[in-house]
Each structure stands twice: as C-alpha cells, then as structure tokens.
Amino acid sequence: MEVRKNIDLRSDTVTLPDDEMRRAMSQAPVGDDVFGEDLSVRALEEKAAAMVGKEAALFVASGTMGNLIAVLTHTVRGNAVLLDPEAHIFYYEAGGSSLVGGVQLWPVVGLHSAGGVEKLLAAVRPPNLHFAPAALLCLENTHNRQGGSLLTPEESDSFCSTARKLGLKLHLDGARIFNAAAALNCPVTGLTRSCDSVMFCLSKGLGAPVGSILAGASAFIEQARRYRKILGGGMRQAGILAAAGLIALERVSQLKEDHLRARNLAAALNRIPGLKINPFPPPTNIVLLETGETGYSPEKITLTLQKCYGIKVIPFGKDIIRMIVHRDITDEDIAQSILAFEKLSEMFVFPAK
Which of 275, 294, 267, 290 has the alpha carbon at shortest distance from 349? Predict the structure, then answer.
C-alpha cells in the first residue's frame, strides 16, 4: 500500500461542515441577535445550557472569547486567577485576561496532576496588601497540552469544594468537555455540575465552522452578554452559524469513534523504533508523539511528513509532535498515516528502541 492522500491531523479545528450542516445553515431562521431576535441562536443557547446543566448560555465567536468573557465576568481588575501553567488560557490566549481584564494570571504548577487540590491549597496566599486577591480558579477538561488528559466527576467536585472554601469562583475551560464525557462514559453534567461557568467549543471535532458556548447561571450570562458586546462579539444574523452549532451538538456521541482511531494510531506508532506515545494509551483524541530518540527534530519530521506523504501534524514543543483525530479522519486515513510514519522511519533510519 502506498501513501496517497492528504490527511490533516494538526487539530480537530480543521473539520469542514458537511452537506447536512450546510443545508441547515442555508435554511436557518435568522434575526438580529443583539436585539435577541435570532431564533436559531436562541435555540442553540437553550439547548447548550440544558446539555451542560446550566440555567443559560451565550453563543460566542471562539473558545478564547468565551474564556476571556468568563474571566471578565467573574473578576474585577487587580484580582488573581489561579490556573495550570500549561492551561490554554495561560499558554495560548495571548495574555488577554491580563491585557483586557487587568487580572494577574497565577500559575499553580501541577494543578492538573496527582494531588492537584493540595497544590492549589499550598499556592493560595493569605490576604495581604502585597498580594493580588485570588478570585477565580480555572480548570481545563480535557487538557490540551497534557495530551487530552481528564478530570473525573469526583476530581472536579473536589476542586469545586476546595474553591468554595477559598472563596473562589470556578470556571471550566471545557473546549473538549464532550470528549471527556465520552472517554469517561459519564453524563457531561457530571463534569460541569460543580463549576460556576463552562465554555465548550462547537468547532473542535463536531464539525461546526465557527463558535463556542459559555454557560452558567442566568445572572452570570446576562453580565457576560455585555462583555461579549464590549469585545465586539455582538453578532447580528448569527443564526446561520448557530444552525451549524445545533447540528454539531447532535454529533456528540460520535466522538468515541475519534478516540478509538486515536488509540489505534497510537498503538501502531508506539511500535516504531525511536517513537514513543506519551501518555499511552491516549485518553481521548489527542496523540502526543515523543521523537527525541529518533535524533531528528519535530520540525524536520513534520516538514518531511507533509512534503513526502501529505500528512499534516504539528510540532508541540521540544521533541514532541501533536496529532488530533477528528470526524473527518477515517480508518483509511489512520492506516495511511501509520504507513507514512513507517516509511519515514525507513528513510531516516530511526534507531532501535
């Protein structure tokens, strides 16, 4: 078998809307959403809120916008926000919380590892005029930079209980929260019941072209809606996009197929000399490949995979490549990707394990 197809494993954000989704978008009832008149947006917000067990929800342009709105709504300028130093909010969101919200992002090393609650307790400073008062704890489930690692309902509840004792609000960056629920085989509400707010993406793995949801109590969402407007997120006939989001929410059960394909990919690559999957097996749809033993940089491997075999992956730090399986990746794509890595191993003569 020869590698013969372009395959994009860079992210689950590269999914394309299919014919069913495009038809729904073209036929969507629309109105001015800033006036609250877009029926499709309202339907999406009501459905999304119910799915994650919250009173209300807000349709936003992106996960980054949803997280920033949550920080703005839960805090005032000068507060501190506690989170993992590898968290998306800290690592990938351009310092928006500090720039726009005037808050101090306060990293807690190991927050998402064993003993995370104890690490949180040790990191919180007592009230003192020298310290920014902590107001918000942010968690991430699944955790992107930890290879799609999970927080269980029990772990989430423990963090919530601790946050309450510390006087903190709890925001959950649940960009891939439905992946977590699928992997744990539990209702998504088991993972969202204890947080004050949750953001999840419609454009990661579910096929929608644009959009995320921020959900929480009705009073929280009312205030969040104002911050969305301040950030330029007051979209007008947004029902065209919301219609895609409604279709996306019907496909949550299909995420388990992505997880199975990710495990199959990981198992095969883990057998190639010089390559190591960590964590193994992958908890969800994110596959982190350690390449240090090959003697070649992730950039070199990535470039060669794309140039020679049409396989797109991304470097993800020192000696790591990230691949994410999504709804547009088939079993044949997985087989082709494995073959490409096997041929690359022969080309570069990866060392034996």
Answer: 294
3-state secondary structure of 253: helix
Number of domains the chain contains: 2
Local confidence band at 350 (pLDDT 50, 70, 90 cut-offs): low
The DSSP output letter for 193 is: T
Q: Do both 209 and 325 map to the same domain?
A: no
Give φ, ψ of 199 to 5 degrees: -115, 135
pLDDT in tens, 107-154: 999 999 999 999 999 999 999 999 999 999 999 999 999 999 999 999
Residue 118, number of CB atoms within 10 A of its CB: 11
Instruction: Record the tokens describing residue 228, joined without a space.
Output: 């969305």
Q: pLDDT over 90 for what percent of the chain?
A: 93
Give the pairing type, strands 212-216 and 286-290: unpaired
**Per-residue tokens: 210:** 């644009």
Specify the DSSP element, H or E, that contains 222.
helix 218-230
Collapsed DSSP state (helix, strand, coil) of residue 255: helix
pLDDT at 353 over 50: no
Q: Residues 117, 188: one domain?
A: yes
pLDDT at res. 279: 95
